[in-house]
Design goal:
It is a single chain. By secondary structure, the protein is mainly β. A hairpin with a 6-residue loop joins strand 21 and strand 22. The chain is globular and about 50 Å long. This is Sialidase family protein. One of its GO terms (molecular function) is hydrolase activity, acting on glycosyl bonds. InterPro entries: Sialidase_sf (IPR036278).
Protein backbone atom coordinates (compact mmCIF):
# COMPACT_ATOMS: atom_id res chain seq x y z
CA UNK A 1 0.00 0.00 0.00
CA UNK A 2 1.42 3.41 -1.00
CA UNK A 3 1.23 6.20 1.60
CA UNK A 4 1.41 9.88 0.70
CA UNK A 5 4.49 11.74 1.89
CA UNK A 6 2.29 14.11 3.91
CA UNK A 7 1.33 11.37 6.41
CA UNK A 8 3.07 12.02 9.70
CA UNK A 9 5.04 9.46 11.66
CA UNK A 10 2.33 9.53 14.31
CA UNK A 11 -0.37 8.73 11.78
CA UNK A 12 1.72 5.94 10.27
CA UNK A 13 2.31 4.44 13.70
CA UNK A 14 -1.43 4.60 14.47
CA UNK A 15 -2.18 2.88 11.17
CA UNK A 16 0.30 0.07 11.90
CA UNK A 17 -1.16 -0.48 15.39
CA UNK A 18 -4.64 -0.62 13.86
CA UNK A 19 -3.54 -3.32 11.43
CA UNK A 20 -1.96 -5.35 14.21
CA UNK A 21 -5.08 -5.14 16.34
CA UNK A 22 -7.27 -6.27 13.43
CA UNK A 23 -5.05 -9.11 12.27
CA UNK A 24 -6.97 -11.69 14.27
CA UNK A 25 -10.13 -11.14 12.22
CA UNK A 26 -8.54 -10.41 8.86
CA UNK A 27 -9.62 -12.87 6.16
CA UNK A 28 -6.01 -13.56 5.12
CA UNK A 29 -3.70 -13.66 8.14
CA UNK A 30 -0.43 -15.33 7.10
CA UNK A 31 1.56 -17.46 9.53
CA UNK A 32 4.89 -18.80 8.34
CA UNK A 33 5.50 -22.20 9.89
CA UNK A 34 8.29 -24.65 9.00
CA UNK A 35 8.85 -22.78 5.72
CA UNK A 36 5.16 -23.14 4.85
CA UNK A 37 2.69 -20.27 4.91
CA UNK A 38 -0.61 -21.03 6.63
CA UNK A 39 -3.23 -18.44 5.67
CA UNK A 40 -6.23 -18.01 7.96
CA UNK A 41 -9.67 -17.39 6.49
CA UNK A 42 -12.40 -15.66 8.45
CA UNK A 43 -14.83 -18.38 9.50
CA UNK A 44 -18.53 -18.07 8.61
CA UNK A 45 -19.48 -19.84 11.86
CA UNK A 46 -20.56 -17.96 14.96
CA UNK A 47 -19.59 -18.53 18.58
CA UNK A 48 -20.98 -21.80 20.00
CA UNK A 49 -20.25 -23.54 16.72
CA UNK A 50 -18.60 -26.92 16.27
CA UNK A 51 -18.55 -30.27 14.43
CA UNK A 52 -17.21 -28.84 11.13
CA UNK A 53 -16.98 -30.94 7.99
CA UNK A 54 -15.13 -29.97 4.79
CA UNK A 55 -16.01 -31.30 1.36
CA UNK A 56 -14.56 -30.62 -2.10
CA UNK A 57 -16.74 -31.52 -5.10
CA UNK A 58 -15.55 -32.90 -8.44
CA UNK A 59 -14.89 -29.39 -9.75
CA UNK A 60 -12.90 -28.31 -6.70
CA UNK A 61 -15.57 -26.19 -5.00
CA UNK A 62 -15.05 -26.38 -1.23
CA UNK A 63 -17.98 -26.54 1.20
CA UNK A 64 -18.13 -26.51 4.97
CA UNK A 65 -21.03 -27.68 7.13
CA UNK A 66 -21.28 -27.25 10.90
CA UNK A 67 -23.64 -27.07 13.88
CA UNK A 68 -24.43 -23.89 15.78
CA UNK A 69 -26.04 -23.92 19.20
CA UNK A 70 -29.06 -21.80 20.10
CA UNK A 71 -29.53 -20.26 23.57
CA UNK A 72 -32.92 -21.99 23.94
CA UNK A 73 -31.49 -25.45 23.35
CA UNK A 74 -31.98 -25.67 19.60
CA UNK A 75 -29.32 -26.64 17.10
CA UNK A 76 -28.89 -25.36 13.55
CA UNK A 77 -27.10 -27.20 10.74
CA UNK A 78 -25.55 -24.69 8.33
CA UNK A 79 -23.24 -24.69 5.33
CA UNK A 80 -21.12 -22.26 3.34
CA UNK A 81 -19.00 -22.48 0.20
CA UNK A 82 -15.63 -20.94 -0.50
CA UNK A 83 -15.51 -18.28 -3.22
CA UNK A 84 -12.22 -16.51 -3.95
CA UNK A 85 -10.82 -17.51 -0.54
CA UNK A 86 -13.84 -16.16 1.32
CA UNK A 87 -16.76 -18.08 2.77
CA UNK A 88 -20.19 -17.24 1.44
CA UNK A 89 -23.01 -16.17 3.73
CA UNK A 90 -24.12 -19.21 5.76
CA UNK A 91 -27.24 -21.05 4.63
CA UNK A 92 -29.43 -23.01 7.02
CA UNK A 93 -30.15 -26.63 6.17
CA UNK A 94 -32.35 -27.59 9.14
CA UNK A 95 -32.83 -26.81 12.83
CA UNK A 96 -34.21 -28.82 15.74
CA UNK A 97 -34.24 -29.48 19.45
CA UNK A 98 -34.23 -33.28 19.35
CA UNK A 99 -30.83 -33.97 17.83
CA UNK A 100 -28.06 -36.20 19.09
CA UNK A 101 -25.03 -33.90 18.96
CA UNK A 102 -21.69 -35.55 19.58
CA UNK A 103 -18.11 -34.27 19.35
CA UNK A 104 -16.94 -37.27 17.29
CA UNK A 105 -20.05 -38.07 15.21
CA UNK A 106 -20.32 -34.88 13.16
CA UNK A 107 -22.83 -34.17 10.34
CA UNK A 108 -21.56 -34.22 6.76
CA UNK A 109 -22.41 -32.64 3.43
CA UNK A 110 -21.80 -34.12 -0.02
CA UNK A 111 -22.27 -32.11 -3.22
CA UNK A 112 -22.39 -32.72 -6.96
CA UNK A 113 -21.35 -29.95 -9.39
CA UNK A 114 -24.95 -29.77 -10.71
CA UNK A 115 -26.19 -28.49 -7.34
CA UNK A 116 -27.51 -31.82 -6.07
CA UNK A 117 -26.63 -31.96 -2.36
CA UNK A 118 -27.18 -34.36 0.51
CA UNK A 119 -26.65 -33.68 4.20
CA UNK A 120 -26.90 -35.90 7.24
CA UNK A 121 -27.41 -35.41 10.97
CA UNK A 122 -28.49 -37.53 13.94
CA UNK A 123 -32.01 -37.24 15.37
CA UNK A 124 -33.32 -38.87 18.54
CA UNK A 125 -35.67 -41.79 17.93
CA UNK A 126 -36.65 -42.52 21.53
CA UNK A 127 -36.00 -41.66 25.17
CA UNK A 128 -32.92 -43.85 25.54
CA UNK A 129 -29.45 -42.29 25.57
CA UNK A 130 -28.40 -44.37 22.56
CA UNK A 131 -31.64 -44.09 20.58
CA UNK A 132 -31.07 -42.01 17.45
CA UNK A 133 -31.32 -42.32 13.68
CA UNK A 134 -29.23 -41.25 10.72
CA UNK A 135 -31.33 -38.53 9.10
CA UNK A 136 -30.77 -37.41 5.50
CA UNK A 137 -31.98 -34.40 3.50
CA UNK A 138 -31.47 -33.64 -0.20
CA UNK A 139 -31.42 -30.43 -2.19
CA UNK A 140 -31.69 -30.17 -5.97
CA UNK A 141 -31.03 -26.41 -6.10
CA UNK A 142 -27.65 -25.86 -4.40
CA UNK A 143 -29.13 -25.67 -0.93
CA UNK A 144 -31.91 -23.14 -1.51
CA UNK A 145 -34.52 -25.71 -0.50
CA UNK A 146 -34.33 -29.13 1.13
CA UNK A 147 -36.40 -32.30 1.06
CA UNK A 148 -38.22 -33.76 4.02
CA UNK A 149 -35.89 -35.71 6.34
CA UNK A 150 -35.65 -39.49 5.89
CA UNK A 151 -33.49 -42.38 7.10
CA UNK A 152 -31.40 -44.80 5.01
CA UNK A 153 -31.92 -47.70 7.44
CA UNK A 154 -35.18 -49.63 7.65
CA UNK A 155 -34.94 -51.37 11.04
CA UNK A 156 -36.93 -48.77 13.04
CA UNK A 157 -35.19 -49.80 16.28
CA UNK A 158 -34.53 -47.25 19.00
CA UNK A 159 -30.77 -47.83 18.89
CA UNK A 160 -27.59 -46.10 17.75
CA UNK A 161 -27.11 -45.23 14.08
CA UNK A 162 -24.28 -42.89 13.10
CA UNK A 163 -20.69 -42.31 11.99
CA UNK A 164 -21.81 -41.80 8.41
CA UNK A 165 -19.76 -41.45 5.22
CA UNK A 166 -21.45 -40.29 2.01
CA UNK A 167 -20.21 -40.24 -1.60
CA UNK A 168 -21.72 -38.98 -4.87
CA UNK A 169 -22.03 -41.81 -7.38
CA UNK A 170 -23.57 -41.14 -10.82
CA UNK A 171 -27.19 -40.06 -10.27
CA UNK A 172 -27.24 -41.37 -6.67
CA UNK A 173 -25.42 -40.97 -3.40
CA UNK A 174 -23.78 -43.81 -1.52
CA UNK A 175 -24.03 -43.89 2.28
CA UNK A 176 -22.44 -46.15 4.89
CA UNK A 177 -22.99 -46.03 8.65
CA UNK A 178 -22.63 -47.86 11.96
CA UNK A 179 -25.92 -49.58 12.77
CA UNK A 180 -26.96 -50.62 16.29
CA UNK A 181 -30.12 -52.57 15.50
CA UNK A 182 -28.58 -55.67 17.11
CA UNK A 183 -27.54 -53.83 20.28
CA UNK A 184 -31.13 -53.70 21.52
CA UNK A 185 -31.19 -56.62 23.95
CA UNK A 186 -34.45 -57.54 25.74
CA UNK A 187 -35.98 -54.18 24.91
CA UNK A 188 -33.11 -52.13 26.33
CA UNK A 189 -31.35 -49.18 24.74
CA UNK A 190 -27.59 -49.68 24.74
CA UNK A 191 -24.58 -51.81 23.98
CA UNK A 192 -25.97 -55.25 24.77
CA UNK A 193 -25.34 -56.69 21.31
CA UNK A 194 -23.03 -56.06 18.40
CA UNK A 195 -22.64 -52.92 16.33
CA UNK A 196 -22.75 -53.60 12.58
CA UNK A 197 -21.63 -51.77 9.44
CA UNK A 198 -24.25 -51.21 6.74
CA UNK A 199 -24.61 -49.28 3.49
CA UNK A 200 -27.18 -48.25 0.88
CA UNK A 201 -27.62 -46.22 -2.30
CA UNK A 202 -29.81 -43.10 -2.13
CA UNK A 203 -31.97 -41.97 -5.06
CA UNK A 204 -33.02 -38.40 -5.85
CA UNK A 205 -36.58 -39.10 -4.70
CA UNK A 206 -35.29 -40.14 -1.22
CA UNK A 207 -35.88 -43.83 -1.91
CA UNK A 208 -33.21 -46.25 -0.71
CA UNK A 209 -31.78 -49.12 -2.74
CA UNK A 210 -29.63 -52.13 -1.92
CA UNK A 211 -29.35 -51.68 1.83
CA UNK A 212 -26.62 -54.17 2.73
CA UNK A 213 -24.84 -55.61 5.74
CA UNK A 214 -21.09 -55.10 5.28
CA UNK A 215 -19.79 -56.42 8.61
CA UNK A 216 -21.79 -57.93 11.47
CA UNK A 217 -19.42 -56.94 14.32
CA UNK A 218 -17.47 -53.68 14.33
CA UNK A 219 -16.12 -51.14 16.82
CA UNK A 220 -18.99 -49.19 18.37
CA UNK A 221 -18.09 -45.53 17.88
CA UNK A 222 -15.19 -44.98 15.46
CA UNK A 223 -15.71 -42.98 12.30
CA UNK A 224 -16.09 -44.74 8.97
CA UNK A 225 -14.24 -43.66 5.83
CA UNK A 226 -15.31 -44.05 2.20
CA UNK A 227 -13.98 -43.26 -1.26
CA UNK A 228 -14.97 -43.95 -4.86
CA UNK A 229 -12.67 -45.86 -7.21
CA UNK A 230 -13.15 -46.95 -10.82
CA UNK A 231 -14.78 -50.14 -9.54
CA UNK A 232 -17.11 -48.52 -7.04
CA UNK A 233 -17.30 -47.50 -3.37
CA UNK A 234 -14.70 -48.59 -0.82
CA UNK A 235 -15.34 -48.44 2.94
CA UNK A 236 -12.77 -48.54 5.76
CA UNK A 237 -13.61 -48.85 9.45
CA UNK A 238 -12.37 -50.11 12.80
CA UNK A 239 -13.27 -53.77 13.11
CA UNK A 240 -13.85 -55.76 16.31
CA UNK A 241 -12.93 -59.43 16.72
CA UNK A 242 -14.23 -61.82 19.35
CA UNK A 243 -10.88 -61.33 21.12
CA UNK A 244 -11.38 -57.51 21.14
CA UNK A 245 -8.75 -56.85 18.50
CA UNK A 246 -9.79 -53.53 16.91
CA UNK A 247 -7.73 -53.07 13.77
CA UNK A 248 -8.72 -51.40 10.49
CA UNK A 249 -10.66 -53.39 7.87
CA UNK A 250 -11.80 -52.69 4.33
CA UNK A 251 -14.79 -53.77 2.21
CA UNK A 252 -15.11 -53.03 -1.52
CA UNK A 253 -18.00 -52.91 -3.97
CA UNK A 254 -16.83 -54.92 -6.99
CA UNK A 255 -19.03 -56.03 -9.90
CA UNK A 256 -22.19 -55.24 -8.00
CA UNK A 257 -21.24 -57.17 -4.86
CA UNK A 258 -19.53 -56.42 -1.57
CA UNK A 259 -16.31 -58.23 -0.78
CA UNK A 260 -15.73 -59.95 2.54
CA UNK A 261 -14.08 -57.76 5.21
CA UNK A 262 -10.30 -57.80 5.06
CA UNK A 263 -7.70 -56.33 7.40
CA UNK A 264 -5.64 -53.43 6.03
CA UNK A 265 -2.84 -54.31 8.46
CA UNK A 266 -2.66 -56.51 11.56
CA UNK A 267 -1.66 -54.06 14.31
CA UNK A 268 -3.09 -56.40 16.92
CA UNK A 269 -4.54 -53.57 19.04
CA UNK A 270 -6.48 -55.27 21.81
CA UNK A 271 -8.67 -52.84 23.69
CA UNK A 272 -11.82 -53.48 25.70
CA UNK A 273 -13.56 -50.23 24.71
CA UNK A 274 -13.93 -48.09 21.63
CA UNK A 275 -11.03 -45.62 21.15
CA UNK A 276 -13.23 -43.18 19.15
CA UNK A 277 -10.56 -42.84 16.47
CA UNK A 278 -11.61 -43.98 13.02
CA UNK A 279 -9.64 -44.35 9.76
CA UNK A 280 -9.67 -42.28 6.57
CA UNK A 281 -9.32 -43.37 2.96
CA UNK A 282 -8.59 -41.46 -0.26
CA UNK A 283 -8.20 -42.53 -3.88
CA UNK A 284 -7.45 -41.62 -7.48
CA UNK A 285 -8.64 -44.12 -10.09
CA UNK A 286 -7.73 -47.43 -8.39
CA UNK A 287 -4.92 -46.13 -6.20
CA UNK A 288 -5.84 -46.08 -2.53
CA UNK A 289 -4.37 -44.81 0.71
CA UNK A 290 -5.66 -45.57 4.21
CA UNK A 291 -4.58 -43.65 7.32
CA UNK A 292 -5.35 -44.62 10.91
CA UNK A 293 -4.41 -44.42 14.58
CA UNK A 294 -3.35 -47.40 16.69
CA UNK A 295 -2.04 -47.89 20.19
CA UNK A 296 -1.09 -51.55 19.97
CA UNK A 297 1.40 -52.57 22.67
CA UNK A 298 0.69 -49.23 24.39
CA UNK A 299 2.55 -47.38 21.62
CA UNK A 300 0.37 -44.68 20.01
CA UNK A 301 1.09 -44.30 16.30
CA UNK A 302 -0.44 -42.83 13.15
CA UNK A 303 0.13 -44.94 10.07
CA UNK A 304 -0.61 -44.94 6.37
CA UNK A 305 -0.64 -47.77 3.83
CA UNK A 306 -0.98 -47.58 0.03
CA UNK A 307 -2.72 -49.88 -2.42
CA UNK A 308 -2.14 -49.91 -6.21
CA UNK A 309 -5.09 -52.22 -6.92
CA UNK A 310 -8.32 -50.84 -5.50
CA UNK A 311 -7.54 -52.02 -1.97
CA UNK A 312 -7.00 -55.66 -2.86
CA UNK A 313 -3.43 -55.53 -1.51
CA UNK A 314 -1.56 -52.99 0.62
CA UNK A 315 2.04 -51.99 1.16
CA UNK A 316 3.56 -52.22 4.61
CA UNK A 317 2.38 -49.22 6.62
CA UNK A 318 4.53 -46.13 7.18
CA UNK A 319 4.51 -44.36 10.54
CA UNK A 320 3.97 -40.63 10.04
CA UNK A 321 3.53 -39.10 13.50
CA UNK A 322 6.26 -37.28 15.43
CA UNK A 323 6.23 -39.46 18.52
CA UNK A 324 3.25 -38.35 20.61
CA UNK A 325 0.08 -38.63 18.47
CA UNK A 326 -3.52 -38.45 19.62
CA UNK A 327 -4.91 -39.58 16.27
CA UNK A 328 -8.04 -37.92 14.81
CA UNK A 329 -6.67 -38.29 11.29
CA UNK A 330 -7.81 -36.89 7.97
CA UNK A 331 -6.49 -37.66 4.49
CA UNK A 332 -6.55 -36.32 0.90
CA UNK A 333 -4.81 -37.68 -2.19
CA UNK A 334 -2.95 -35.45 -4.65
CA UNK A 335 -2.92 -35.85 -8.43
CA UNK A 336 0.45 -37.63 -8.38
CA UNK A 337 -0.76 -40.30 -5.95
CA UNK A 338 0.96 -38.80 -2.91
CA UNK A 339 -1.16 -37.82 0.08
CA UNK A 340 -1.52 -35.14 2.70
CA UNK A 341 -2.40 -36.50 6.14
CA UNK A 342 -3.37 -34.51 9.22
CA UNK A 343 -3.54 -35.57 12.87
CA UNK A 344 -3.32 -34.30 16.43
CA UNK A 345 0.03 -34.41 18.21
CA UNK A 346 1.17 -33.49 21.72
CA UNK A 347 4.18 -31.17 21.47
CA UNK A 348 5.85 -29.27 24.32
CA UNK A 349 2.80 -29.80 26.56
CA UNK A 350 0.51 -28.41 23.84
CA UNK A 351 -1.85 -30.09 21.41
CA UNK A 352 -1.26 -29.14 17.79
CA UNK A 353 -2.76 -29.98 14.41
CA UNK A 354 -0.09 -31.29 12.06
CA UNK A 355 -0.01 -32.19 8.39
CA UNK A 356 2.56 -34.15 6.40
CA UNK A 357 3.02 -35.11 2.76
CA UNK A 358 3.75 -38.79 2.11
CA UNK A 359 4.65 -40.20 -1.29
CA UNK A 360 3.21 -43.50 -2.50
CA UNK A 361 6.66 -45.10 -2.12
CA UNK A 362 6.59 -44.30 1.59
CA UNK A 363 8.94 -41.32 1.53
CA UNK A 364 7.65 -38.54 3.73
CA UNK A 365 8.34 -34.84 4.04
CA UNK A 366 8.74 -32.86 7.26
CA UNK A 367 5.57 -32.33 9.27
CA UNK A 368 4.00 -28.87 9.38
CA UNK A 369 2.13 -27.34 12.29
CA UNK A 370 -1.22 -25.93 11.22
CA UNK A 371 -2.50 -24.57 14.52
CA UNK A 372 -2.70 -25.06 18.25
CA UNK A 373 -5.84 -26.75 19.50
CA UNK A 374 -7.13 -28.65 22.50
CA UNK A 375 -7.02 -32.36 23.26
CA UNK A 376 -10.48 -32.17 24.82
CA UNK A 377 -13.50 -33.76 23.19
CA UNK A 378 -14.91 -30.32 22.46
CA UNK A 379 -12.15 -29.72 19.90
CA UNK A 380 -13.56 -32.50 17.73
CA UNK A 381 -11.89 -33.82 14.59
CA UNK A 382 -9.91 -31.40 12.36
CA UNK A 383 -10.96 -31.49 8.71
CA UNK A 384 -9.14 -31.16 5.36
CA UNK A 385 -10.25 -30.60 1.76
CA UNK A 386 -8.21 -30.19 -1.42
CA UNK A 387 -8.90 -27.80 -4.30
CA UNK A 388 -6.31 -27.30 -7.04
CA UNK A 389 -3.07 -26.52 -5.19
CA UNK A 390 -4.67 -25.36 -1.96
CA UNK A 391 -5.26 -27.53 1.09
CA UNK A 392 -8.02 -26.23 3.36
CA UNK A 393 -8.39 -26.86 7.08
CA UNK A 394 -11.22 -26.46 9.57
CA UNK A 395 -11.20 -27.20 13.29
CA UNK A 396 -13.04 -26.35 16.48
CA UNK A 397 -11.28 -23.91 18.80
CA UNK A 398 -12.08 -24.24 22.50
CA UNK A 399 -12.22 -20.75 24.00
CA UNK A 400 -13.14 -20.82 27.68
CA UNK A 401 -16.62 -22.26 28.03
CA UNK A 402 -17.37 -21.82 24.34
CA UNK A 403 -16.25 -23.14 20.96
CA UNK A 404 -15.80 -21.54 17.56
CA UNK A 405 -14.71 -22.92 14.20
CA UNK A 406 -11.46 -21.70 12.61
CA UNK A 407 -10.42 -22.17 8.98
CA UNK A 408 -7.20 -21.73 7.00
CA UNK A 409 -5.37 -22.95 3.92
CA UNK A 410 -1.90 -23.92 2.77
CA UNK A 411 -0.54 -23.73 -0.79
CA UNK A 412 1.07 -27.04 -1.74
CA UNK A 413 3.39 -28.13 -4.52
CA UNK A 414 2.97 -31.20 -6.68
Amino acid sequence: MKLKNSITHFTLLTFVIFLLNCSCSAPNNEIKNNESIIVSIESPAKVHSGEPHLYSDQEGMVYMSWIEGHPEGWHILKFSKLVKEQWSSPQEIISGNNWFVNWADYPTLSVKPNGHMIAHLLVKSGPGTFAYDVTLLQSQDSGKSWSSPFTPHTDKTETEHGFVSILPIKDQFFATWLDGRNTNVKGGHGHGGEMSLRAAFINQDNSVENEALLDLRVCDCCQTGATLTEHGPVVVYRDRSEEEIRDISIVRYVNGNWTEPKSVYADGWKISGCPVNGPKVASIENKLAVAWFSAANSKPTVKIAFSPDNGETFSDPVRIDDGHPLGRVDLVMLRDGSVMISWLETENDETVIKVRKVNSDGNKEASIKIANTSSSRASGFPQMALSDNHLYFAWTNVEGDSTVIRTSYQAIKY
